[in-house]
TrEMBL record:
This is Beta-galactosidase. SUPFAM superfamilies: (Trans)glycosidases. Signal peptide: none annotated. Belongs to the glycosyl hydrolase 35 family. Gene3D superfamilies: Glycosidases. InterPro entries: GH (IPR017853), Gly_Hdrlase_35_cat (IPR031330), Glycoside_Hdrlase_35 (IPR001944). It comes from the Bacteria. Residues 41-187, 322-381 form the Glycoside hydrolase 35 catalytic domain.
Length: 794
């Protein structure tokens, strides 16, 4: 029995408001940024930015440039970063902007590589930093922080002046990258103070076309002076250990027009207090700055976030109506060592969560040591869509179907929505959520009625929407003279190849791809597999086997030539697009790829890395010191780098001392479990020793020590210096060799301590069965060596 899924797109609402908000770009810029009530504009055209958070002060400056290029290759167009006060001025009067704290160099690198920059200047940031980023010396004063107390505003004014000095000349008026500035963070009930902070920042010399504020938690904003930005996370460390999966996270896997999330930061504000009036959403576009690219782990609660969770969250928000995808974090990092104290959020500073001393990996798409994770590939697939079609999607309104889920615990009603301009659009489906799998939906077909165009029903034969499937299908998409009426495959991007405009599509696992073409726009169709069938004003292409050779060639009625390349779902998640060797090309690679002028660099742990290119360059690319082999891979050409074999990756780990009894649990702020005292790590932890091979010490870049372990918490030391740490959550523990003092490691090796967890500890660790995982132990260790290959034109 076919399950009806119907939706009618209403007549378009009134034209968006323009010129009603007090935001203006610098005079004379070639691509002025503007804001309507429904979307942003740049250069007079709808603009769909993708921002990703990367904290420069939590990452080695020598690696910033390559990591920014990774973010750009992942589809990020703007880099956001907290300017964390305590990282720069831990000691009053000794402000540091050197080394890993060089804000200006970081912003200049963004500009060099065409990335916008969004400083989030606080002064309070949160960011799981000690005191939310406020220095201890400031809090020791007789002043009320985060208010208009003159004793607080005086040092804030000086701090903003320091930031402005670092960023002078990097505003839009001078051709700089700063497109937005965030004031404060998560301040929900002091609109007057937000207004004061904006004024102080402007007086200090800071300038941007957009001034923003976080808007979750029923925030009260100062009129329309700040653009409200929203968020949503797949999981949360800030809720209770025994609270289960929070409903405030569950809601983000439904299509809805509700922007607020009262869960974010709720542990730091009274839940009974909310703003007097909601933000007038009819006057602001739906923009985000904190869609969860992952999640931190606290001692009492250690969530796991998978790539599918991140991908489903991002795609759902686009379907809901987002016009700015902003991720926190997109790139993980490590807390810098403090001169006076450690710099993490902790019970010791009165905050409700104990965080690791050093690690701020956040399970992000790009990890603490630059690891390329599956979530990076998942999001890049969506960002490629936005790069080509975001200007079309941004003005489209989100429309919900006739039949909606009955509530947040309804797992049986299919979750879908359409974004449409009245004649065309994109159909979004999310059939995934964390923790509680959603069922298959057999015999599914969609009927979408338009006010200004005929109704569409798709597919031609009902399909099963598999559990876990998330996709976006096009509705009346124009591609270089061809109209694709609909497809059961997701648009990825376009590229010019072989004299055709090639639209790449990603098949949905478990759903046979079909392409319905408007017959009036088609002169001829050739397909390598399947059938071409004229049906009622359309040409239906079915039976295509997805892959690198699944190129449907269409000669359009207007004389243009179009290719529709249907990749299988796995291959589609390896697609990169960038300028390489004199042309825009697609590169297929399951590892990390960056585009840098005349070079393409691969970051791969494979013994013989490979990548495929479309269109292929005229000559085989060259890699210094390696032989490159070329073979056909469908319409791509695949190149394999013949590399020297990798050395033995096994790691001998020596148990120096077995663990003692697990310490008794202790609770702190809000009754949550606290990290065991250091004395227990010294006396009750199992201790291990690792000697690092000399060949790895000579070339430590890209080398990770990967540990699979069990227990409560683990810390690594070189001598007596803490160099890495983690709370157990079932994830591997990576330690970057190039972050360690090489000579000290050569002389002393690496020492690790692993503490067991008491059975009665009020700690949430997902997915564990029995009690064996509570015992302290390193179960397996290996070296993971990611080599960098520079590929140049042949």
């Amino acid at each position: 029995m076919v399950t009806p899924h119907r939706l009618r797109v209403p007549k378009s609402s009134a034209l968006p408001l323009t010129g009603h908000l007090p935001f203006a770009d610098a005079p004379g810029v070639p691509d002025p940024i503007g804001v309507t009530s429904r979307w942003l504009t740049r250069g007079g055209r709808p603009w769909f930015p993708v921002s990703g958070e990367f904290h420069y002060s939590r990452y080695p400056a020598r690696e910033w440039e390559e990591e920014l290029l990774k973010m750009k290759a992942g589809g990020v167009t703007a880099v956001a970063s907290y300017v964390i006060w305590i990282h720069h001025e831990e000691i009053e009067g000794r402000t540091r902007f050197d080394g890993d704290r060089d804000l200006r160099r970081f912003a200049e690198l963004c500009a060099r590589h065409g990335l916008d920059f969004i400083p989030r200047i606080g002064p309070w940031s949160h960011a799981e930093v000690r005191n939310g980023g406020l220095p201890d010396w400031l809090l020791a004063r007789a002043a009320t922080s985060r208010t208009d107390d003159p004793a607080y505003l005086e040092p804030v004014r000086a701090w903003f002046t320091q930031i402005a000095g670092q960023l002078r000349g990097l505003d839009r008026a001078h051709g700089g990258p700063i497109v937005a500035i965030q004031i404060e963070n998560e301040l929900y009930d002091r609109p007057g103070h937000l207004r004061t902070l904006k004024r102080l920042a402007q007086e200090a010399g800071l300038s941007a076309p957009l001034w923003t504020s976080t808007a979750w938690g029923g925030v009260q904003l100062p009129g329309e002076e700040l653009l409200p930005l929203y968020g949503g996370y797949p999981e949360a460390f800030w809720t209770e250990a025994d609270g289960g999966w929070p409903d405030t996270c569950r809601k983000h896997f439904f299509f809805t027009h509700e922007r607020d999330d009262e869960g974010i930061g709720a542990d730091l504000r009274p839940t009974a207090v909310r703003g007097a009036d909601p933000v007038p959403v009819d006057r602001f576009p739906w923009a985000t700055c904190e869609l969860g690219g992952g999640m931190a782990v606290a001692y009492h609660r250690r969530p796991r976030v998978e790539a599918a969770d991140v991908g489903a969250l991002g795609l759902t928000k686009i379907g809901c109506g987002s016009v700015w995808q902003g991720y926190y974090m997109f790139h993980g990092g490590t807390n810098p060592p403090g001169e006076l104290t450690s710099l993490q959020e902790s019970h010791a500073t009165g905050y409700p969560n104990d965080l690791p001393v050093l690690s701020y990996d956040f399970q992000a798409p790009l990890g603490e040591y630059g690891q390329v994770r599956p979530s990076y590939h998942e999001l890049r697939l969506q960002h490629l869509l936005l790069a080509d079609f975001g200007h079309r999607i941004a003005p489209m309104e989100s429309v919900l179907p006739e039949r909606l889920p009955a509530g947040q615990h309804d797992r049986d009603t299919l979750r879908w929505a359409v974004r449409s301009d009245g004649t065309s659009g994109f159909l979004f489906v999310t059939n995934h959520q964390p923790h509680e799998p959603l069922p298959d939906h057999p015999d599914t077909a969609f009927t979408v009625g338009f006010p200004d165009a005929p109704t569409l029903t798709l597919p031609s034969v009902p399909v099963t929407v598999p559990s876990g499937a998330c996709f976006c299908w096009p509705l009346r998409l124009d591609v270089a003279g061809l109209r694709l009426e609909w497809a059961t495959a997701q648009p990825v991007c376009t590229v010019e190849a072989g004299g055709r405009t090639v639209l790449v599509l990603a098949a949905t696992d478990g759903v046979a791809p079909e392409l319905a073409l408007d017959a009036d726009t088609v002169a001829s169709v050739a397909t390598p597999t399947g059938e071409v069938t004229p049906i009622g004003g359309r040409v239906l292409v079915s039976g295509v086997r997805p892959g690198t050779d699944a190129l449907v060639e269409v000669d359009a009625a207007d004389g243009s030539r179009v290719g529709l390349l249907v990749l299988d779902a796995g291959t589609a998640r390896t697609v990169y697009r960038g300028d390489a060797w004199g042309a825009e090309r697609l590169v297929l690679c399951g590892d990390g790829v960056v585009f840098d002028g005349d070079e393409v660099r691969l970051h791969s742990p494979a013994a013989e890395p490979s990548f495929a290119v479309l269109p292929a360059p005229d000559a085989v690319p060259v890699v210094a010191g390696a032989r490159v082999r070329a073979v056909a891979d469908g319409v791509f050409t695949r190149y394999t780098i013949g590399a020297a074999p990798l050395a033995d990756t096994a790691v001998p780990v020596t148990l120096v001392r077995p663990a003692g009894p697990a310490p008794e649990p202790v609770t702190g702020v809000q009754g949550r479990a606290s990290v065991p005292a250091d004395k227990y790590v010294e006396t009750a932890a199992a201790e291990y020793h690792v000697d690092v091979p000399e060949d790895l010490l000579r070339a430590p870049a890209g080398v990770l020590l990967r540990l699979r372990w069990t227990g409560d918490l683990a810390r690594a030391y070189v001598g007596d210096v803490l160099v890495a740490d983690q709370f157990y959550s079932g994830r591997v523990w990576d330690i970057g060799l190039d972050r360690l003092p090489v000579e000290e490691v050569r002389a002393r090796g690496l020492r690790m301590r692993v503490l067991p967890l008491a059975a009665e500890a009020p700690v949430h660790v997902p997915g564990q069965a029995g009690d064996d995982w509570r015992a302290a132990g390193v179960r397996h260790a290996e070296w993971v060596v990611t080599r960098s290959w520079t590929v140049r034109a042949g």
